[in-house]
Amino acid sequence: MSNSVEIDLTLSPGRHDTLDELAAVAQRAETLGFETLSFGEVTGWDSIALLTILADRTDDIRISDEVIGPYSRSPSQIAQAAGSIQTHADGRFRLGIGTSSPAIVEGWHGLDFDRPLRRLRETIEIVDMATAGESVDYDGEIFELDGMSLELPTPIEIPIDVAALGPKGVELAGRFADGWVPQLFTPDGLERRMEDLRRGAEMANRDPESLRTSVLLRACALEDGDRARALGRQHVAFMISVYGPFYRRSIAEQGYQEMVEEVRSRWFDGDREAAMEAINAEVLDGLVACGTPEEVNAVIDDFAAVDGCDAVRIGWLGPAEDDAIDATMEAVAPSDR
Question: 1-163 in CATH: which number?
Fold first, then answer.
């Protein structure tokens, strides 16, 4: 694997009953040499509280989130929180933002999922203005702000990573953000979508090489490779059938439309075993990485070879238990590769 490609790690906060437990995992990740530590937020631990604790309990590893959305918090709130965390983290924080999904925005926050990409763009612009120390006089299509400014020592440099799957969202990341966090792409699918990132950067007269792409790869590395692949099948079948339309559409558009339809049909007919069996073997070696440690690290190498990929961000499979997570963390750790 190219030494220039970093290995990041994403936590699963819902697996932990206390923030102290999460902090202990972060400290272990730092010891194992992971470059950036991130996590998602849905209805569990609050991102801002957790980022503050991680900034306090770690020394060198970068910290990030996946993702703070422009529906759950206003752009000004995001700027305040990001500025505060970055100051406490001594520059180790990367702000992850994205549109989230209709299920979360409407079902949890009770808001309309309207014009998500426009809202995301305006949020990035406002956060950039505020953290630069500017008076934020902003007249957008979604947000109108009247010239107040951030009452923190500024400027505060905060790299912004956008989580996006579709071509327009990825193009937006290239135009306005500092990085891109894709997930559920095969190496070939990632390579094709990189064209949208580069086009966005070129539209803004930016160097595409200045953007950090960290592809999120759900992984399970066990000496019992069959067990790992069975867990991978469960995870992918769930993502296709239940988790949300964006992921399903992205997988289908990468050449797996028939598989997606078969998996969903069998899942909702009540035959989940058949749904899992319908997952193509090549999907388990691309969309996720499941098998022996050697097989999983080979998939990581395949992503590392994609032009423009700066990091592979390892995440866990939904059905994996603690022993599988511990084994995978050890198998893919930069200090052990």
Answer: 3.20.20.30
